[in-house]
Specification:
By secondary structure, the protein is mainly alpha-helical. It is built from two helices and no strands.
């Protein structure tokens, strides 16, 4: 990527969540393939369910 990308979070007039989480990989990461594999693992529906269910939180993960 040669372009700088801005990240914007807009709050709708009807309200919004109080927070959001994000997983990112720095462009200087020494092992980006491992980082992608970890993120893909965490986002598996069965894994994210084990993480979110005991905490009464919802994760926006859809089964394909």
């Amino acid at each position: 990527m040669d372009r700088k990308r801005d990240i914007v979070y807009d709050i709708p007039s009807v309200g919004s969540l109080m927070w959001f989480d994000g997983m990112v990989i720095p462009k200087t990461a020494k092992h980006p393939d491992n980082a992608h594999a970890f993120i893909n693992y965490i986002l598996r529906p069965d894994v994210v369910a084990k993480i979110s269910m005991p905490r009464d939180t919802l994760m926006p993960i859809w089964a394909h």
